[in-house]
Amino acid sequence: MVAAFAFILTNGNSQTTDDGIRTGSEPQPTPSVLQPSNNAGPTLASGKADRKPPVGKTATSKATTAKPPATPNTGSESPTFRRGQWIAVVDSVQADAGVAADQLAKGLAAKLIAAGVPAKALLASGQYPGLANSSFEPIRGTWIVYIGPVSSADAANALCVSPKTQKAVGTLPACPTYEPATVHN
Fold first, then answer.
1. Of 40, 57, 121, 144, which shows the fewest CB atoms inside 10 Å?
2. Which residues, listed in sequence order, are joined to residue 120 by a DSSP beta bridge?
3. If you ran DSSP here, which 8-state letter would residue 65 be given?
4. Which of 4, 22, 2 shows the shortest CA–CA distance to 13?
5. Cβ atoms within 10 A of the Cβ of 57, count?
């Protein structure tokens, strides 16, 4: 017992000064208090690892299944426009061109929508007096991909030449703008 006491005095947690005088013991670190975990499941240390966790108290992970990408809404084939609404035409395809014009137009509109551009596709069959050719005749039998509607021709053209549109479609110098509900001579 004397040996143990001598060991403690000479090898304990006390500090000595330069002249060999003991100044006292160093403070002992306090054991850290374990924080409760957010894991509701049992641990090996709890001795309950072989038990099933209580129903409804464990966090469940949702199984992620790959969903097919939703087809964006490319609009009605014959939307209704009001006076003062302007559109910018990005592309047009003749319905009788021998290709699936509707699919081409809707595909381009979907690509623009995915890029964040408010695009739609419509089938012009003469119902829009403001969508006219150079002879001021209403456009017929044509699938049109358009941006808008917006409140002015300048706003429609600004959407056409915006970086989002340019990135999605490629470089467009400008798009023809129309006010579909109004005849312009």
1. 57
2. 146
3. -
4. 22
5. 8
CA distance linking residue 86 with residue 76, whole number of Å: 17
pLDDT digits 0-9 by tens, 60-96: 445 555 554 567 788 888 899 999 999 999 999 999 8
Do 51 and 40 contact (CB within 8 A), yes or no? no
Residues in the chain: 185
Q: CA-CA distance, 99 to 103, in Å (whole number)?
A: 9
- Tokens matching residue 91: 């592309």
Q: Nearest Cα to 167, choosing from 129, 115, 132, 122?
A: 115
User: How many whole angstroms separate alpha carbon 80 and alpha carbon 87?
Assistant: 12
CA-CA distances (angstroms) from residue 120 to 5, 38, 165? Answer: 91, 48, 13
Q: What is the distance between the alpha carbons of residues 123 and 139, in angstroms, rounded to a whole number?
A: 10
pLDDT in tens, 23-45: 555 555 555 555 555 555 555 55
Look at the block and give the residue holding tokens 């003991």. 22
Claim: this prediction has a pTM higher than 0.70: no
Q: Structure tokens of 68?
A: 């097919």
Look up residue 168 and give its two tokens.
Answer: 């999605």
